[in-house]
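Posting here for the record, re: S-adenosylmethionine.
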Amino acid sequence: MQNDRLFSYYKAQKIVPDEEWDQLVDALRQPLPTTFRVAGSRQTANTLNNTIKNVHVPSLGDVEFEGQKIPPPVQIPWYPDGLAWQFNVPKKVLRKQPEFKKFHSFLVFETEVGNISRQEGVSMLPPLFLEVEPHHNAMDMCAAPGSKTAQILEAIHAHDTITSSSIPSGLLLANDSDNKRTHLLIHQSARLPSPALMVTNLDASNYPTIKIPVTRGKETQLAPLLFDRILCDVPCSGDGTIRKNMGIWKSWQPMDGNGLHSLQVRILIRAMKLLRNNGRIVYSTCSLNPVENEAVIAEALIANQDFELVNVSSKLPELKRRPGLTTWQPTTDRTCAKTFESYEEFMASSVDDVVKAKMTEGHWPPKDVEALNLSLCMRIYPHLQDSGGFFVAILQKKKSSNAKSQPDRKREAEEGATELPDSKKPRLSEDIVAKEEEDPIAFETTSEVEAGIDEAAEGITEEPMAEPIPESEKPTLPAARPQKKKALERGEGGFKENPYTFLSPDDPILLSCIERLHINSSFPSANVLVRNPEGEAARVLYLANDIVKTIIQNNNYERIRLTSAGTKVFAKQEAGKGSEAQFRVLGEGLPVILPYVDETTIIEGDMESLKILVETYYPLCDKFPEKFRKTVEERVAGSHIVHFPQGTTEIASLTHDLVLPIWKSNVSLTLMIDKKAKSALSLRLFGADITTAGKEARSEAIKKAELKEVE
Ligand SMILES: C[S@@+](CC[C@H](N)C(=O)[O-])C[C@H]1O[C@@H](n2cnc3c(N)ncnc32)[C@H](O)[C@@H]1O
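Prediction output follows.
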């Protein structure tokens, strides 16, 4: 844990006062605590958080391991409502100490189903400063793998109740230039299914204008969509993650940051152009390098003078932070022995011309640096609160500014970009505030039920975001855009996504879903879409909100590489021999559908029935308590919804109502949630994984242990 280049460079930047230097270096050499955030909409999160606070933490309060006292998890002081936690426990304690082992497996399962996000503490900051509201049009420009996207989605869904999800009027457009990573992002965000989410795969620095129809007087025209909030969590050298990514100790060199500066500036400048008046941009990196931080902010503020930095010193008062730098000294010298105070000094030096060409004036502090208030930027250092290193800046588009920068005016003239006042925004449906009755926990059900894949998780899923970006992942531009329509076809490389088609509200498949679940007429049937290749029958139905629908219908997808839109609600389920295939409601779609479902359609369940459903793959109907059995026997085969009311019985205690999808065949029932979601539910309700998969995993582990002993 020594790198003289890194030390010389950061000492020259004076990132901390001399007397703090040793503390900073000591902190960099300590392992990073494990941090996690209780995810989901506010009410669901608070319920789970209470379990952590009142059940788990007290059981970890007095633990000793190999003669050493082990400190329990503590809440991160600055995170709102105490929903984020941190603990610093060696791996062997998690594996061997019984209480911590139990807590660890709780975290693993809850992470799998998306109720907990294993996210670095400082990486939770940008969305908190973005202050997204459910009606906002928000954009996450460099979003994958999606931990911050999830936080923004939660803010967009702030009106969700513990029982069901709302259809927000706002939008979250999450983008990443790396195609593979956008799919990771989609997978992660399926944990908080949202009809307001769109995912694109584009170069953020050159993000195309999205058009939406706007009515002025009698005329409707297409105008550019401008955003209320934009997050630029840009690709960076990642040296703030050195406590976790030990490879940085060896590999760090100054050209990493120098090389990223120009892309970072271009991404931020593009975000500025996509923002509406009085909107807000959060720019962040997990790097300590001023060239990737203050220098980027300075260059962008000079390029677009409609913007200013926002003072957020009173927000998150418990967060220890340091002001942004106003001086810094870039270098191209690998040893970092020599840094340069100004661009002029650098250009006059004996540095090789090829190297000189890699640097711009913008790498250095501008002449009028004081005017930019760079000290309003925030630097988070590891020694202040035992965290990673991080940088955040909040920029705001001034309320009314005539000071349009030259390129801005030019672009607006070219694109006809217009600011849409609130009253002129396209008319979108009102927020539909969900009923506060039933509760589905948002289980991930993308995989087929009990698909038989055993991925018994050993560790909590690590957040890949904080890794130093390997060469292959450094600033990427998506594969060349297809020139011809033909290239859009599947399997030809380039853009492979299927077309988006909205169903007619009287489409027979949609009508059959609606009739079967007695979905009422306020359900937005006109917003249901499919993505099957032309000519193929639909297998999955998605639901989009009005703004997502408007965007899909008014833009050209050869230009906007749309990877995903809306949330899955129904999927085709092949039935057994002699029965017709049917569409079933998906666990992830249930929260959105539930407010529209006629209550008499929902089957009342009880704890014993829930236990049987959790414990067995296909329990026979006659195994269930009489009341429940009679009700299900009266129902036709196919997709049903069951409500399990909160309460305490001898078997278990349910802290809040649960609503889950089941499938009824002729003689048996199946709980339609995926294997891991079922295990998480089992752990939460019964204190153990009583699922078939859980039991199999345990007996497998015992067999292995016995074999080892024999050997
Ligand atoms: C720091 S990571 C983002 C982490 C993410 N915000 C999160 O919290 O999970 C930076 C991301 O930028 C993406 N990226 C790199 N160059 C890009 C570009 N030109 N346009 C858009 N995204 C880019 C990378 O693929 C990477 O996923």
